[in-house]
Amino acid sequence: MALQSAIINVMAGAAKKAAWKLVRDFGEVEQLQVSRKGPADFVSIADTKAEKTVVQELTRARPGYGLLLEEGGERPGKDPRRRWIVDPLDGTTNFLHGIPHFAISIALEEDGNLVAGVVYHPVTDELFWAEKGRGAYLNNQRLRVSARRKLDQSLLATGIPFAGRGDAADHTRFLNEMATIMPQVSGIRRFGAASLDLAYVAAGRYDGFWESGLAPWDIAAGIVLVREAGGMVSEFNGGSDMMKSGEILATNSAIHGPVTRLLRDAHKKTATVDRGVDAN
Ligand code: IPD
Ligand code: CA
Ligand code: CA
Predict the structure, then answer these.
(1) Distance, CA of 48 to CA of 60 (rounded, Å)
(2) Where in the chain do CATH 3.30.540.10 domains reside?
(3) What is the pLDDT of residue 1?
(4) Burial code of 94-109, b = ≥16 C-beta within 10 A, e = fewer?
């Protein structure tokens, strides 16, 4: 049985408290699907309420820590070394459409390093948590990334850009990534919550995940999970500035090199087309 530290208890408690209300609101959203106005305003209120609950719980337990919040922005604390990074509702589009795949994601950063992460999926009651140097867990069970070594047996997840996310060049770049990776793997999924995509890599459900255009709160907790489950996390080119660039590739260690090479090939194709040269 895994023993959660005090800090994980605080994070899990905050996530679960907010989740309880989110699930109640989710039930309401399902009813609102058929109304002409739709549930958009209701969902944005639910999102803000969830963030408020998380912030209340975290600051009650650790009053001095700073905060980086999706909705509320950056709030420096008295303690300059530590900050919470919070996405109160990851998978908003799913939530809005009545699809039960969304999560609350909370990470702790210390001196610029990610040291703890919690991703809670309320509908399945799955608490993914990890602490630097202490491993990653799903509820009480230790997590390891998958052991698959062959790309053609690997299941990858990704995020697809959409209206308002990235420009035409970004969309073309993504299509080239798909065209390059798709024929090499056993499947690609787009479930719509980056924090859960990373948690699933940590749990060995996916062998890898890649996406660009993400925000720090989408990935902070998931990065700790994947690393602590023995996986590799980088930018597409192998760099380590994922929190700034918003670009992430998280995999088991066996397929990290091969997927990096596929992404490089895909981007070469994009660059060739950009210069107006026929790729063939
Ligand atoms: C989104 C989800 C989605 C990803 C988007 C994110 P949100 O977060 O993580 O999977 O593709 O880029 O913005 O808006 O649901 O918190
Ligand atoms: Ca998010
Ligand atoms: Ca969100």
Answers:
(1) 18
(2) 6-142
(3) 60
(4) bbbeebebbbbbbbbb
For the entire predicted model, the pTM comes to 0.95
User: Per residue in 142-162, pLDDT tens?
Assistant: 999 999 999 999 999 999 999
- Please tell us whether the domain made up of 151-279 is placed in CATH 3.30.300.30: no
Q: Which residue among 85, 92, 174, 211 has the greatest number of ligand 1 atoms within 8 angstroms of its CB, and so is best to mutate? A: 92
Q: Which of 184, 180, 144, 177 is nearest to 159 (CA)?
A: 177
Structure token digits, residue 109 = 């950063």
Tokens linked to 65: 């820590």
Q: Is the CB of 143 under 6 A from ligand 1?
A: no
Q: Please give all residues whose CB falls under 5 A of ion ligand 3, grouped by chain where several chains appear.
A: 70, 87, 89
Map residue 190 onto helix, strand or coil: coil
Beta bridge partners, 136, equal 130
The secondary structure of residue 153, as a DSSP letter, is: G
d(CA 117, CA 37): 36
The one-letter amino acid code at 11 reads M
Q: Give me the architecture of the 6-142 domain, per CATH.
A: 2-Layer Sandwich (3.30)
